[in-house]
Known about the structure:
Distance between the termini: 75 Å
Low-confidence stretches: 1-27
Radius of gyration: 24 Å
Largest sheet: 3 strands, mixed
Structural class: mainly alpha
Strand content: 5-15%
Helix content: 40-55%
Order of helices and strands: HHHEHHEEHHHEHEEHHEEEHHHHHEEH
Number of strands: 11
Strand order of the largest sheet: 8-11-10
Number of helices: 17
Amino acid sequence: MKKLIILGAILATVGCTDNFDKAVDFTAVENPNLSEGSVVGQPNSSRIWLLGLEREISFFLNEVLILSELGSDNYVNTQTFYSQFLDDLDIRITDPDMRDTQFRIHRLREGAQFGLEQVGPGDPEYTEEIEAEYHFFEGMSYLYAAMYFSGLPQEELGVIVGSEQQYQDAIASFSLAIGLAPKAEYYLALARANYYLGNKPEAVAAANQALALDPAFAREALYDAANGPVNDLENALFGRATFDDFQPLPSLDFLDPKYSRLTAAQDPSVHYLKAEEAHLILAEANITSTDLLAAKSNLEDLLNLVDTREVRSINDATEGRTQVAPGTRPDNSSVVVNGRTGLVLDRQNGLIDVPSISGTSLTQAEIDALSTQDGALELLYRTRQEIFIAEGIRFVDMGIKLVVAQNEILQNPNVSEGDPSTIAVIPPFIEAVIPQLDAFTYNVAAGTVQITIDVTKILVTNKNSPFVLPFN
């Protein structure tokens, strides 16, 4: 009987002369508290909208950091709670993580543009500082599109815009922000865009401007443990404890977990633009200009800055490092990794100290010993990996790019499967070593670890490739 009633209802609906869309037009239902008019034209609405953009960048970082940290040699995923594919650099258009990451970039861009075009001009309390922030966030959407994708549309059902143009558009937005209300992080974002384009003079100039405005700045994305968004990478590194989801390369063990629970109400921030990057850009510029003396000075400045950053003392005893397969991962401070000591923490012997913004194994002695360009580049890129761990930069430095999602391909007439933007970019020298990216051997009796490949050395060996080391 139920089947007959349902079938009758369907036939009645099909037989209607009116358009079915009109019968169930859900768009006609409007919540007056959520309408455009509840925002546009309201006092202080531009500042409230800005808080929404801050929230959007936190959501975006949640998406991309999980993927990029797994896709690099920083972390291996020992469980199945997070991405199933990125550890093997299996980058698919059908992966919902591609869709969600792309979606968050679009939301950030559209939100910034709506602020510039509608919310800001309609707010009697709109300021140049808030307008500058809107330009900054629009620029960040282009910057992230360029860093992580070979191409993305910049409007609904729009044409694919390549990463080089995305960088140029980011530069334009950051320049507008700087013209309204200069901030150190605006200059650093400008420096990063020019850096990845290989524009050495422009990147150096912007990096110097950033440090001149604030030699110790750090722009952070905030997370709310009680109301969201929570810091997803913190869960993977620390919050899920004995599940051991993400495990670092042993040479990076001393930097993990960068994110650990602060309070029941607050998750740790992601510092997505910080002064350390300016020093690294300046050092690389000097190395590639064969001015090792100046590069040494830049690295010394970096060390001095890192010494001022917060180091958190935490209890990480529940993680242990070896629950999944006992004896497979180094778990005490006596372990020697590739001939180097002090890289592994003893998590079973009380509190451990972990840098929460930046940390490095770089020493003054290593800086003093620099004598060749390639040696200096290897030390620099090892340091970049350490400084930026859990921040998604190593993945970009490896020259890898994600793909346009299947939803875009199916709905956007400007995109077809097989187009360049739908095919992952993996440099051939990285593709050749994918199975070894996270590999190492651990001799428990001897207390030694040998990491199978040195990705940093591979990058420097291929420094003239268009995929990596943009100043070469």
